[in-house]
């Protein structure tokens, strides 16, 4: 499977080994959806542990066992989790195609393309070792007047460049989906959390005048 030539503004191609059992997630108009997690290996021998959401109409749940390798084509989508006291943005790779890979077919692929709009002022910073980073939240349009809000992290000279862009600017990005663990302190309690984001390797600013307004309530606090 590949995503070349797809006229979409949100494309993900990813392969990896299932590391968390498939469980029922939700149902929409009689169609059931399941979630599981895969390990997508990096060149550094580390792995990103990423959530996948798949329809029961694409594949039988019984096929999605731990240790099985899968190839997924889809989109990176966001939704709001209202189960906690604060509104939190939750990301998942929504599968549009999925297939089981044999051991001989095992791949190491993790690619994403987004065409969206900057919906929060980019945050530019430097690490203690002087590495330049910008955090930017990109809103990508979906059908039925919905949008997905995707956190992106940009490095080096691209970080400097994107830090000067304004809210509402149209931007295209290419990169990979990654997971990152961090600790959140609330009062005396320290909670381990996992964040998902796009590590950007390439950016492009289309020559267009189209702009967009954003509802800040839909972004993570």
Topology:
Elements: E1 10-28, E2 31-41, E3 47-55, E4 69-81, E5 88-101, E6 110-118, E7 123-126, E8 132-142, E9 146-155, H1 156-162, E10 170-186, E11 189-204
Parallel strand pairs: 3-5, 9-11
Antiparallel strand pairs: 1-2, 1-4, 1-6, 2-3, 4-5, 6-8, 6-10, 7-8, 8-9, 10-11
What does this structure look like?
This protein has 221 residues and is mostly beta strands. It folds into two domains: 10-106, Beta Barrel (OB fold (Dihydrolipoamide Acetyltransferase, E2P)), CATH 2.40.50.140; 112-216, OB fold (Dihydrolipoamide Acetyltransferase, E2P). 3% of the residues lie in helices and 60% in strands. Strands 1, 2, 3, 4, 5, 6, 7, 8, 9, 10 and 11 form an eleven-stranded mixed sheet that branches. A hairpin with a 2-residue loop joins β1 and β2. The termini are far apart.
Structural descriptors:
221 residues; 2 domains; 3% helix; disordered C terminus
What are the secondary-structure elements, in order, as H or E?
EEEEEEEEEHEE
Q: For the residues shown, what is the average pLDDT?
A: 86
What level of helicity do the residues show? under 10%
Low-confidence residue ranges: 208-221
CATH architecture of the largest domain: Beta Barrel
Number of domains: 2
User: What is the count of DSSP helices, taking H or I runs of 4+ residues?
Assistant: 1
Annotated CATH topology of the largest domain: OB fold (Dihydrolipoamide Acetyltransferase, E2P)
Query: What gross morphology would you assign?
Result: globular
Main sheet summary: 11 strands, mixed
User: How many strand segments?
Assistant: 11
Structural class: mainly beta
Assigned CATH superfamily of the largest domain: Nucleic acid-binding proteins
Q: In percent, how much strand structure appears in the residues? A: over 45%
User: What is the CATH domain class of the largest domain?
Assistant: Mainly Beta
Cα radius of gyration in angstroms:
18 Å
Distance between the termini: 36 Å
